[in-house]
């Protein structure tokens, strides 16, 4: 009988082995209730068959209730219902009338509802709570088995020695029953916990991969040039904007290469010096840096896995500030123009009145003086007229000036100015070339101001050329705007002077006032247009005046 008891003990391990094997892969967890039911049902049938075979040896102990309890609690209500029907169907063929049948009825009508009630608590409990519920259920099962065994031996009137032997086997069986119940909970719950850990690990890993991809997308799509440098001084990552700034180098040429070799193409000493300092312990350095003829606000900082650990490398971020700087320069120009306009408005009458008196007395003295002194008075009158012209330019720079605009043809305006420009060019020994496009849309212009603009630009071009220079004036009709280009073949303007060319009082001429181009800029502002310069040393300069067409959005 000992071998049959041990054999049943091994049979009761079938659900444990089956769940250990089945739950080795997390993807199978959704089918685990069905597998639990199959394994427990097979274990129950085998245990009952072995017990029935050993019944002839006056031993009626079996482990059928261990897989039954495991299947009920781990299989859920559907599996528990199937196992209950299977258990009752087999047991009804094994029990006789009398006490065994009464105990089976009590088992079905009292213990089974108790188990179904405990299933809900079991599924939400921790491991210790599950062991407590299984232990309580196992003890109740042992009570039912004890009554059946007592009734069996009371009926068969065994000898005293056989009774002692049965009592010893019963105690050993009961202990094995309880131990096997707790072991089943431990190993099956451990398998579920491993699956849960694997699922949580996979979910966290997927979440991590998703966050890494999202961060990568953010870095690549941001308007910042980003370069990551590891602690060995090699570039570990860079986004697309940084790669464009390092062209013609490819990503393969840059990644895992020393930053001192790759970043030298930026031609910015600050980047290399700041990176070296950050790699040696500095926390953060920032400065403006010119890269590929554009202005960047460059920040170099340390980065690491944790705040309290040593830095793992350097993070370089470059923000393109070119447009912001240009806008700032435009605002500064407008502020200067506004200041000049306010000055002009406040002092014009104070200057013009005494100048008018002086000019009148100079003319009177000129009439009463001898002819030898007429040249002196003529020089005085010329200088007074020049001073008056400067005052007029001051007045033209006032931003709050209201100009009247009419629909006009730019070609007609240029043709009206052509004789005056040619006369001025002939006196200098130069030529004027007028190249007009075939058709030009009408514009809303203040004819007087546009003539003044063209004259200023043309005379600036003539003054920049020698006596054989050619001044070219041309127009272009573009889809959304009209361009007027005034081109000379003079000496050109140095790049450092181009940035300040439209500032009031800034001039490259010996006798210039620095108001002509500032006046041109002010005129274009009032016409909602733009003016910019393209120049090459030794080749000449082109002033490009842009008018936005009506009902078009140019900028």
From TrEMBL:
InterPro entries given in the database record: HATPase_C_sf, HATPase_dom, His_kinase_dom, HisK_dim/P_dom, HisK_dim/P_sf, PAS, PAS-like_dom_sf, Sig_transdc_His_kin-like_C
Pfam hit, one: HATPase_c
Catalytic activity annotation: ATP + protein L-histidine = ADP + protein N-phospho-L-histidine
Signal peptide range in chain numbering: none
EC number: 2.7.13.3
Domain of life where this protein originates: Bacteria
Histidine kinase domain ranges (all copies): 346-551
Alphabetically ordered keywords of this record: ATP-binding, Kinase, Membrane, Nucleotide-binding, Phosphoprotein, Transferase, Transmembrane, Transmembrane helix, Two-component regulatory system
GO molecular function: ATP binding; phosphorelay sensor kinase activity
Keyword check for Nucleus: no
Transmembrane segments: 34-53, 65-89, 101-121, 133-154, 166-188
Listed name of the protein: histidine kinase
């Amino acid at each position: 009988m000992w071998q049959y008891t041990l054999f049943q003990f091994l049979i009761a391990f079938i659900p444990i082995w089956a769940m250990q094997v089945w739950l080795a892969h997390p993807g199978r967890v959704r089918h685990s209730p069905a597998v639990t039911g199959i394994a427990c049902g097979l274990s129950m049938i085998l245990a009952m068959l072995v017990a029935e075979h050993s019944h002839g040896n006056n031993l009626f102990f079996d482990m059928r209730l261990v897989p039954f309890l495991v299947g009920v609690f781990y299989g859920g209500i559907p599996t528990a219902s199937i196992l209950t029907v299977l258990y009752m169907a087999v047991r009804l063929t094994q029990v006789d009338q009398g006490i065994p049948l009464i105990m089976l009825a009590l088992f079905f009508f009292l213990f089974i509802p108790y188990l179904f009630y405990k299933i809900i608590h079991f599924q939400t409990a921790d491991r210790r709570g599950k062991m407590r519920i299984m232990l309580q259920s196992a003890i109740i099962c042992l009570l039912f088995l004890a009554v059946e065994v007592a009734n069996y031996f009371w009926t068969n009137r065994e000898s005293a020695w056989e009774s002692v032997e049965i009592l010893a086997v019963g105690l050993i069986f009961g202990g094995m029953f309880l131990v096997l119940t707790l072991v089943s909970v431990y190993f099956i719950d451990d398998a579920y916990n491993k699956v849960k850990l694997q699922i949580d690990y996979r979910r966290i890993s997927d979440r991590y991969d998703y966050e890494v991809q999202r961060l990568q997308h953010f870095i690549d799509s941001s308007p910042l040039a980003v370069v990551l440098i590891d602690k060995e001084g090699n570039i570990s990552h860079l986004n697309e904007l940084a790669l464009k700034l390092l062209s013609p180098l490819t990503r393969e040429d840059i990644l895992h290469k020393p930053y001192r070799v790759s970043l030298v193409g930026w031609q910015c000493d600050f980047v290399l010096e700041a990176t070296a300092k950050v790699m040696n312990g500095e926390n953060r350095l920032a400065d403006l840096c010119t890269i590929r003829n554009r202005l960047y606000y460059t920040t170099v900082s340390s980065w690491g896995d944790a705040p309290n650990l040593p830095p793992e490398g350097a993070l370089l971020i470059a923000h393109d500030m070119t447009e912001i700087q240009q806008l700032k320069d435009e605002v500064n120009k407008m502020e200067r123009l506004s200041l000049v306009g306010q000055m002009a408005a406040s002092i014009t009458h104070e200057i013009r009145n005494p100048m008018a008196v002086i000019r009148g007395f100079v003319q009177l003295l000129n009439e009463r003086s001898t002819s030898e002194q007429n040249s002196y008075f003529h020089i005085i009158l010329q200088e007074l007229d020049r001073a008056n012209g400067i005052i007029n330019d001051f007045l033209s720079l006032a931003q709050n000036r209201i100009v009247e605009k009419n629909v006009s043809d730019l070609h007609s305006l240029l043709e009206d100015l052509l004789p005056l420009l040619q006369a001025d060019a002939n006196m200098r020994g130069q030529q004027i070339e007028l190249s007009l496009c075939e058709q030009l849309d009408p514009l809303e212009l203040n004819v007087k101001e546009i003539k003044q603009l063209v004259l200023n630009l043309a005379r600036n071009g003539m003054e920049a050329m020698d006596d054989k220079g050619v001044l070219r004036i041309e127009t272009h009709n573009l889809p959304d705007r009209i361009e007027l280009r005034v081109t000379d073949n003079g000496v050109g303007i140095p790049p450092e002077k181009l940035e300040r060319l439209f500032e009031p009082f800034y001039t490259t001429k010996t006798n210039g006032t620095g108001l002509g181009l500032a006046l041109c800029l002010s005129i274009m502002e009032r016409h909602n247009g733009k003016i910019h310069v393209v120049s090459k040393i030794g080749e000449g300069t082109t002033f490009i005046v842009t008018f936005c067409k009506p009902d078009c959005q140019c900028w």
